[in-house]
Each structure stands twice: as C-alpha cells, then as structure tokens.
Amino acid sequence: MQNDVLSYTELVRWGVISAANIGVRAVSPAIHASSNGRLVAVGSRDPQRAAELYAFAPHVRIYGDYVSVINDPDIDAVYIPLPNSLHAEWTIRALEAGKHVLCEKPLATTVEEGKKMLEAARANKVLLMEAFMYRFHPQVVWALEQIKAGVIGSVKLVRASFSFDIRGRSTNVRLRPELAGGSLMDIGCYPLNLCRAIYGHPPRTVAARVYAPRPGAVDMAMNAVLDFGEGRFGLIDSSFELARRQMAEIVGDEGSITIPVPFTPGDHAVAVFVTKGGNMNEQSFTRVDQYRLEVEHFANCIRTGQEPEMSLNETLENLATIEAIYQAAGHDWPIL
User: Fold this and answer.
1) CATH code at 135-293+317-328
2) Whole-angstrom Cα distance, residue 91 to residue 117?
3) Residue/partner pairs of 7-13 with CB below 8 Å, 24 or more apart
4) In terms of CATH architecture, what is 3-132?
5) How far is CA 80 from the centre of its chain?
6) Which residues, given as ranges, of the chain have pLDDT below 70?
7) d(Cα 329, Cα 116) in Å, to the nearest integer?
8) How many CB atoms lie within 10 A of CB 128?
9) Domain locations along the chain
10) Model confidence over 68-109: pLDDT tens digits?
C-alpha cells in the first residue's frame, strides 16, 4: 500500500457495493493500492464469499447488505459496480446519504435516469463520476493531447471497435435484458465515449443496426455511423459474438493516430502510432494501472473540490446517443 503517508482523515475512505467481478479484480485492488484512498467496507449478499474475495484487504469491513455501506459514517465515497439496471437506484441512495459516487459505465439505463442522478448529486453537494477508466491511461491522454494540438490536422474520421465472445456464458449479466445488458451498453459505450471525447460534442445524427437473436433479447452486436457534422464521422461497433479485439483509429486531414489496445491494455506496455507525411512514429507507454489512476483522480477531486475529468454533461450526452442508436436501429430500449 502507498497511502500510509497520509493520515486516516486525509485519505478518501471508500465503500464498495457488491462483490462484482470488476470491483474484485480491478477497482477495489486499485483503491487498496492508491496513494490517497483507503478501502474501508464492502457490501455483499454473500458476506462469506466477499470475505474470501477481499482477503487482499484484511482490515476491510464486510457487510451483508448494501445499505450498511451507504450508512457507514466512516465512508466518504462509494464505488458502484452493480448491473446497469441498478445503477440509478443505488447511486441516488448513496448520494442522498452524502456519499460521493464513482459508478460503473454506463452511468444509467436512460437519459431520464441519468438526469435524476445528476440532480441528486447537485442537491446533496457531492461528486458523481462515470467510471470510464481508459480515459485516465497515459496513452489515451497523450493521444487526445496530440489531436487537440493539431498534430494530425482536423479529425474527420474515428473508427473504434470492442468485442469478445460470451455466447457460451448464458447466465452472464451482460446477456440479461432485465439487468439492462447488451453489447452497446457494456462495451459499445467505449468507442462511443472515445468519439465524443475526440470531437468534443455529441453527434448530430446517427444511423445504426443491432442484432438481437430474438424479441426481448439484448443486442449481441451493434454497428453505428455517427455524424458529427461538417464531414466528421465516427464508425463504431461492438459484439458479444466476435473474437476478443479492440482498436481505435483517428484520421485527420494531415495524418492519423492508431491505438491498438485503447480500452483494456491490461498488464502490458503499449504503444500509440502516429502516421504523417508517409512516416510512422511510435510513442511507447510503460505499464500502468488505469483503474488506480481513475480512483486517485476522483479522490483528489473530492479533497480539492475540482470537477472530475469525466463531466456529467458529457455522460448525459453519451447516454442520449446510446438511446439514439437503439432508436435508429429499431431496437426497443430499455428492455425492462
């Protein structure tokens, strides 16, 4: 642990709601290792299993419910990795209890839910941020800086993909319509978020197709064309039926930037490639924990009062685009 240099009251004290896989594998260990945070409590419907999963943090409090985490007076911030359909309910309950909230993406099932969450954060004077960890990785930060500096000229096209095959995992929460699953909601939101980050505003119009194997099922695949106006486009796709892959290509009128593994680079060094004037240059990045960078950023915002990098206005615009994609594809949403 790196946070011993700060006093207990200076550290942001975290609670985690549920023993969801992303929390156990990535975010909770990141909080535990962070320089400005402390993992205090976890709420789970199966406290014995949670205690086993959280053995890496032997002093963490294990509660058998979520409400106890929210009501714990020692907790400053709550991380919520629940299924999508439960984000709004538990985020609002935590906000109303005076806790800052880092909620997994997508923040909500609908724009209407997202607005209620934003209103609850403002009414209770606490921070709320959508957990897009990839935005804190140095490779993405650097790429966005190059784009802003005009290194590849005016960006006209962004192509981004994210897929993996889960057809053999029928009980996976991503495939359950009552939990607001689906490829767009789970992984297609990453390419969408990247397009919005590059262009700085939501698309004017969208055209899209999704594949759902039967009526009432979640989308297993999504393809969309996003029109950002003035000849600027985004081409994004996601799938639960294709081999594991991800990529992003940003094309300007003077060159291009390629990020081979933009969203989940894992425990590996990575590189970004800039092609310009017939030459390709490589920018390398050593391994980092992008989840730790995310939670440290949010904790720093809590202690300093600065606004989080992921603004709620951006989040609401992306939620609106998710809805627009489903509507353009003729896919009923939400399926609840």
Assistant:
1) 3.30.360.10
2) 7
3) 8/38, 10/36, 10/303, 11/36, 11/37, 11/38, 11/299, 12/36, 12/37, 12/38, 12/76, 12/77, 12/100, 12/298, 12/299, 12/302, 12/303, 13/37, 13/38, 13/40, 13/74, 13/75, 13/76, 13/77
4) 3-Layer(aba) Sandwich (3.40)
5) 11
6) 1-9, 335-336
7) 26
8) 26
9) 3-132, 135-293+317-328
10) 999 999 999 999 999 999 999 999 999 999 999 999 999 999
- Here the tokens at position 130 are 């959508």
Contacts of 29 by beta carbon, 8 Å cutoff, 6+ apart: 56, 291
Q: What DSSP line would sit under 56-71, residue for residue?
A: TSTT-EEESSSHHHHH
For strand 12-17 and strand 37-43, is the pairing parallel, antiparallel, or unpaired?
parallel
Token digits of residue 306: 């600065």
Nearest CA-CA partner of 319 in 204, 185, 210 = 185
- The token pair that represents 51 in the structure block: 């205690």
Give the pLDDT of residue 152: 98
Q: pLDDT for 311-330, tens place per residue? A: 999 999 999 999 999 999 99
For 51, the 3-state DSSP assignment is helix
Q: What is the per-residue pLDDT for 124?
A: 98
Model pTM? 0.95
